[in-house]
């Protein structure tokens, strides 16, 4: 199941029977390009989706005519899988800039996709290409519950002669953070954790990290704490969905034959380096994602520390289904061998790419006139979370010895950030000036190769 897209886990009904992949990363910390990577198994520079706008190829005609036709559901369909999708798809899905609600991506037999970005009430679905408008009744319209109920109905009515695949993508815990009525008073005393890089100054970091007021004013603290609580409240309905799904699989005697993936499309920050709330940054809190898996051949209650990327989900799902991975165009690799060594042999990657294309507005934000044009995602106290020149590429090594991150910005400064995450896990100190030039050169060369890699070359960089 999936969506889990936008999740930070806190309570899971899968906790007794799972493997936790503790070093799971997104290759880009933003919804639409990340989801496109999950579907295709490709880095953004190959599938072409750069941000959440149609001009950035989010559910554009170009996406629909090319990368979407090679997404993993297409291969499952060829193997006679019964496929089901429900929830948020891509941020611009269903808009007139594409083919509208009539467009059902290839490979999906049952299609219940949200038009546009995350909502809990008052939204439109494309149901197998037909428009379905919803209102504000909790019993009929609350989207997380609707996704859960329709997935149970699919499982009940599927053909037992063929395998099945479900991808569930509830809005939670994305804004507007609308919890179910029964959960709106939960976590009333919870605040965002004050540890790690929380409210630390962005010293020696890209200018976007140097602009927030530090320490944060009380108005920003109140805002992020409220968001943190509401996100937790919305996730209680996701917990209910997971529990219902597992119980349903058990009742139809398919639980032991089914792989369940629980993950997210990006991380999230609430107060780290004095940034109120958002994602889009190169730091661990935005690029790390939760990932739990259970299924045949997987020994329960394990934690794996080898790096796994969201571009690995598509090849892993195809590997499980029996697709010959040598015949598909993916940048990622199956991690089935890591989860179930008895089923597969495989290798662990030593480093990988994280890339992001910043977004900004050509004119000045009227609420923050002193900041000038080129910015976006401006929150309380005129702290902006993104900009045109928040465009970067990083190479991240994770080998259990010295874990490094090397990042270059595409800006007039050609700004560089380097972190030793072994000694500095919260990335408080940019060690560019303290790092051996030979190491910097090697990281730069790896980054250049990864930024132009495709297929096998993304997995074979030395």
UniProtKB/TrEMBL annotation:
Q: Where in the cell is it found?
A: Lysosome
Q: Which UniProt keywords apply?
A: Calcium, Glycoprotein, Hydrolase, Lysosome, Metal-binding, Signal
Which residues does the record list as 3-oxoalanine (Cys) (modified residue)? Answer: 31
**What molecular function terms (GO) are annotated for this protein?**
glycosaminoglycan binding; metal ion binding; N-acetylglucosamine-6-sulfatase activity
**Positions of the Sulfatase N-terminal domain:** 14-323
* PTM remark: The conversion to 3-oxoalanine (also known as C-formylglycine, FGly), of a serine or cysteine residue in prokaryotes and of a cysteine residue in eukaryotes, is critical for catalytic activity.
Task: Enumerate the SUPFAM superfamilies for this protein.
Answer: Alkaline phosphatase-like
Q: Which InterPro entries match?
A: Alkaline_phosphatase_core_sf, GlcNAc_6-SO4ase, Sulfatase_CS, Sulfatase_N
Q: Name the needed cofactors.
A: Ca(2+)
* Gene Ontology cellular component list: lysosome
Q: Does the keyword Metal-binding apply?
A: yes
Alphabetized Pfam families for the sequence: Sulfatase (PF00884)
Q: Which residues belong to the signal peptide in this entry? A: 1-24
| Catalysis: reaction(s) | Hydrolysis of the 6-sulfate groups of the N-acetyl-D-glucosamine 6-sulfate units of heparan sulfate and keratan sulfate
Q: Name one GO biological process term.
A: glycosaminoglycan metabolic process
Name the principal localization, coarsely classed.
Answer: other
- The record's EC number reads 3.1.6.14
Q: Which PANTHER family does this UniProt record tie to the protein? A: N-ACETYLGLUCOSAMINE-6-SULFATASE (PTHR43108:SF9), N-ACETYLGLUCOSAMINE-6-SULFATASE FAMILY MEMBER (PTHR43108)
Belongs to which family? Belongs to the sulfatase family.
> What protein name is recorded for this chain?
N-acetylglucosamine-6-sulfatase
């Amino acid at each position: 199941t999936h969506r889990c897209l936008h999740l930070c886990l806190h309570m899971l009904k899968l906790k007794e029977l799972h493997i936790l992949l503790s070093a799971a990363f997104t290759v880009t910390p933003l919804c639409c390009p990340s989801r496109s990577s999950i579907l295709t198994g490709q880095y953004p520079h190959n599938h072409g989706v750069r941000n959440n706008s149609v001009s950035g190829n989010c559910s554009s005609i170009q996406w629909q005519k090319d990368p979407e036709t090679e997404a993993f559901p297409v291969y499952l369909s060829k193997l006679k899988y019964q496929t089901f999708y429900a929830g948020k798809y891509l941020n611009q899905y269903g808009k007139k800039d594409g083919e509208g609600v009539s467009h059902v991506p290839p490979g999906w037999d049952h299609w219940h996709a949200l038009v546009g970005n995350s909502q809990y009430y008052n939204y439109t679905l494309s149901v197998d290409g037909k428009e379905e408008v919803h209102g504000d009744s909790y019993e009929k319209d609350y989207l997380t519950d609707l996704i859960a109920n329709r997935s149970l109905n699919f499982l009940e009515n599927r053909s037992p002669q063929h395998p099945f695949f479900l991808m569930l993508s509830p809005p939670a815990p994305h804004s507007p953070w609308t919890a179910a009525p029964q959960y709106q008073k939960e976590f009333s005393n919870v605040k965002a954790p004050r540890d790690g890089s929380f409210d630390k100054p962005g010293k020696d970091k890209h200018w976007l990290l140097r602009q927030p007021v530090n320490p944060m004013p009380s108005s920003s603290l109140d805002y992020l704490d409220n968001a943190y609580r509401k996100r937790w409240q919305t996730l209680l309905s996701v917990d209910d969905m997971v529990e219902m799904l597992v119980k349903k699989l058990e009742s139809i005697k398919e639980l032991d034959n089914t792989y369940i993936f629980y993950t997210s499309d990006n991380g999230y920050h609430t107060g780290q380096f004095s940034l109120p709330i958002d994602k889009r940054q190169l730091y661990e809190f935005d690029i790390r994602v939760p990932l739990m898996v259970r299924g045949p051949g997987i020994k329960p209650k394990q934690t794996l520390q080898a790096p796994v990327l969201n571009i690995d989900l598509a090849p892993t799902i195809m590997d499980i289904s029996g697709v010959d991975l040598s015949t598909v165009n993916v940048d990622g690799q199956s991690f089935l061998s890591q989860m179930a060594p008895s089923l597969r042999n495989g290798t662990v990657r030593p480093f990988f790419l994280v890339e992001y294309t910043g977004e900004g507005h050509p004119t000045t934000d009227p609420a923050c006139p002193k900041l000038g044009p080129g910015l976006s995602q401006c929150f309380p106290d005129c702290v902006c979370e993104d900009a045109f020149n928040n465009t970067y590429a990083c190479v991240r090594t994770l080998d259990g010895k010295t874990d490094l991150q090397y990042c270059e910005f595409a800006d007039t400064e050609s700004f560089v950030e380097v972190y030793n995450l072994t000694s500095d896990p919260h990335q408080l100190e940019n060690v560019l000036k303290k790092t051996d030039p030979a190491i910097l050169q090697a990281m730069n060369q790896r980054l250049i190769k990864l930024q132009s890699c495709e297929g096998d070359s993304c997995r074979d960089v030395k």
